[in-house]
């Protein structure tokens, strides 16, 4: 039965507890014999990352063990497994590598106790366990190399048996051993470049004491490297402005493009272990192509065939086995999950984990791609309209909207199902998710719009998208809020300082002072700002001008600030400086510090509290009373 209620007050079955339960984090999947294993967080256990096996409800990795790498701070590739069922993983608490033998409940260490060492990007190949090692010593910059970790535990007492295979760059990723076991390929880059600016594919002869006769394969920027069954090297590169696939012999200079397209096969290497393509045993290649949204294709020579998969957002190729392909991703109607598709069969992909809605589809918005004319060209976004199975708004009322600015800032959103978005849209609050200039997924030219212009282009594009969208009549121009986390938090503050487009702002661990970020941030991003803003301290005046803290006196709209107490990327001091500036001028605001939380909230209780506070904050800012939510008082 239809019910007419103002936007923002629609009754919803989607609770903040549902959001916490429906939004686990994943860290890869693989074939283990005929089974599929995957890593999934447990919000109710503080976000512990456990390993699951297809068909089992209980995790293989018992509590309190948690697979989590801190290499590059963002980690990734924290586990691997043998076909015999042995689990290899990086324990989050001490960053050592452990082995949990099949049938055992007690992991045993494979690396020594060393508080300075971290491991990540684990790859089990040809019976050898490779990992990226990061060592934090007294030197200002951590040392990193690719190591061969003995599986017999001989390195536990002393690190000497850890054979260093490749080094010589500030950062390394994606080690891959050739089919005949004689060569190693990997990705390398160094400051001041980020991996999406300039990263090389390298290959060398694999000897007993490391890699020799190293040469560089790629010309501009590699995001992944792999070996084909015939011994050729496959890698991504973007000399044409798009990440496409290339192949070469490890002994030759000549390279050939493989079915190039006006789309990206690749993305930003924020975490280790991400894969966008994989060669099959017969020489064919499965690859993800991104142009706003994703598609999976099968490349046979120059022939390209789109594969029937249900996912179009954040798609990754996790593993292949024969003609079977293990995928992760989501779509506009399907939440994140893992699927197996057979490249040779027309059968529907088999769902392994996730991928199911906890609510009827009538409660969830279906995103649509939208674009707006901007000062530097089109600005891309995804619209999630208010959606409810029975409630409607009074005739003539326009919906309030939350405009999202993603983190990174080099990142991408692609319109996938989001439980937190549904939490708001089911209550009558729309969401516009913006891929501002600098986002990936639209080619290098779009990505480089932010070069030297962070704090300008992102803010321009978010303001432009919000105003243009409201001008169509799709949103209430008086009830627009901007929300972002990390780098997106800087965009939030900057947008609030630039006029009155937004009447409220929500920042999760947002950047407020760029000088503090430049001097206090971790090594992976230590030179990120060189390309986004300029050199520090040489260009300190630009840092001051672009910092939201400098212009905090221009913020008049209420602000909600949410911060993790243990955040090493954007420490609490950033949020507290902007809080103090708002308090000094009497600007309505609310600040919450969550103990034990880092860069991104993990625990169930934190996710619930943060989600409900955001709704209560919007209600206080816009003057409505959502059902079942306690009112929020401003500081």
Which features does this protein show?
alpha+beta, globular, 33% strand, eight-stranded mixed sheet, Rossmann fold, Neuraminidase, 635 residues, 10 helices
The number of helical runs is 10
* Main β sheet profile: 8 strands, mixed
Distance between the termini: 41 Å
- Report the average pLDDT across residues: 95
Q: Stretches where pLDDT falls below 50 for ≥5 residues?
A: none
CATH class of the largest domain reads: Alpha Beta
Write the CATH fold name of the largest domain. Answer: Rossmann fold
Helix content: 10-25%
CATH evolutionary superfamily of the largest domain: Alpha/Beta hydrolase fold, catalytic domain
**Number of β-strand runs:** 37
CATH architecture of the largest domain: 3-Layer(aba) Sandwich
Strand numbers in spatial order across the main sheet: 29-30-33-32-34-35-36-37
Using the alpha-carbon principal axes, give the shape: globular
Estimated share of beta-strand residues:
25-35%
Total of domains: 3
The radius of gyration over CA amounts to: 24 Å
* Content-based structural category: alpha+beta
């Amino acid at each position: 039965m239809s019910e007419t209620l103002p936007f923002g007050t629609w009754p919803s079955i989607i609770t903040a507890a549902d959001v916490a339960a429906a939004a686990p984090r994943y860290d890869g999947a693989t074939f283990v014999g005929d089974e599929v294993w995957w890593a999934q967080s447990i919000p109710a256990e503080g976000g512990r990352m456990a390993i699951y096996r297809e068909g089992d409800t209980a995790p293989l990795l018992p509590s309190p063990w948690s697979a989590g790498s801190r290499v590059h701070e963002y980690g990734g590739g924290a586990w691997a497994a043998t076909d015999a069922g042995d689990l290899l993983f990086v324990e989050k608490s001490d960053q050592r590598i452990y082995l949990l033998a099949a049938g055992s409940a007690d992991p045993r260490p494979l690396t020594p106790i060393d508080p300075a060492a971290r491991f990540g990007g684990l790859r089990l190949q040809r019976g050898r366990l490779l990992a990226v090692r990061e060592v934090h010593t007294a030197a200002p910059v951590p040392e990193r190399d690719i190591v061969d970790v003995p599986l017999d535990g001989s390195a536990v007492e002393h690190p000497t048996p850890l054979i260093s295979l490749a080094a010589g760059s500030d950062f390394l990723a994606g080690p891959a051993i050739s089919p005949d076991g004689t060569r190693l390929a990997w990705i390398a880059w160094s400051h001041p470049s980020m991996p999406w600016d300039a990263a090389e594919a390298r290959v060398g002869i694999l000897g007993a004491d490391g890699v020799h006769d190293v040469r560089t394969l790629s010309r501009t920027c590699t995001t992944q490297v792999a070996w084909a069954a015939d011994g050729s090297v496959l890698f991504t590169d973007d000399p044409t402005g798009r990440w496409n696939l290339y192949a070469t012999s490890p002994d030759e200079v000549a390279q050939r493009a493989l079915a190039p397209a006006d789309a990206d096969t690749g993305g930003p290497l924020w975490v280790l272990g991400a894969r966008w393509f994989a060669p099959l045993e017969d020489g064919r290649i499965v690859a993800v192509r991104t142009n706003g949204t994703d598609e999976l294709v099968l490349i046979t020579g120059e022939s390209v065939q789109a594969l029937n998969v249900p996912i179009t957002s954040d798609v990754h190729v996790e593993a292949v086995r024969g003609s079977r392909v293990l995928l992760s991703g989501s779509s506009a109607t399907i939440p994140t999950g893992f699927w197996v598709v057979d490249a040779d069969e027309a059968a529907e992909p088999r769902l392994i984990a996730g991928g199911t809605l906890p609510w009827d589809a009538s409660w969830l918005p279906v995103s649509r791609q939208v674009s707006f004319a901007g000062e530097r060209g089109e600005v891309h976004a995804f619209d999630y309209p208010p959606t409810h199975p029975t409630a409607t708004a009074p005739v003539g009322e326009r919906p309030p909207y939350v405009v999202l600015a993603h983190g990174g800032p080099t990142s991408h959103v692609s319109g996938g199902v989001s439980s937190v978005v549904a939490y708001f849209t089911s209550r009558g609050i729309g969401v516009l998710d913006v891929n501002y200039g600098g986002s990936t997924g639209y080619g290098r030219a779009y990505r480089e719009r932010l070069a030297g212009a962070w704090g300008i282009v992102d803010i321009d594009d978010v303001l432009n998208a919000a105003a243009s969208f409201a001008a169509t009549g799709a949103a209430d121009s008086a009830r627009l809020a901007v929300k972002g986390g990390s780098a997106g938090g800087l965009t939030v503050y900057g947008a609030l300082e630039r006029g009155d487009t937004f009447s409220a702002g929500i920042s999760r661990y947002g950047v407020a002072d760029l000088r503090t970020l430049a001097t206090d941030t971790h090594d992976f991003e230590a030179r990120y700002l060189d390309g986004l803003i300029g050199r520090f301290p040489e260009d300190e005046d630009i840092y001051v001008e672009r910092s939201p803290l400098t212009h905090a006196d221009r913020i008049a709209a209420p602000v909600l600030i949410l911060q993790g107490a243990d955040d090493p990327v954007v420490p609490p001091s950033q949020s507290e400086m902007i809080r103090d500036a708002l308090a000094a001028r009497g600007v309505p605001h609310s600040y919450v510090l969550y103990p034990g939380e880092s860069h991104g909230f993990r625990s169930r209780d934190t996710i619930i509290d943060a989600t409900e506070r955001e709704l209560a904050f919007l209600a206080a800012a816009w003057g409505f009373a959502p059902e079942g939510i306690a009112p929020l008082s401003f500081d």
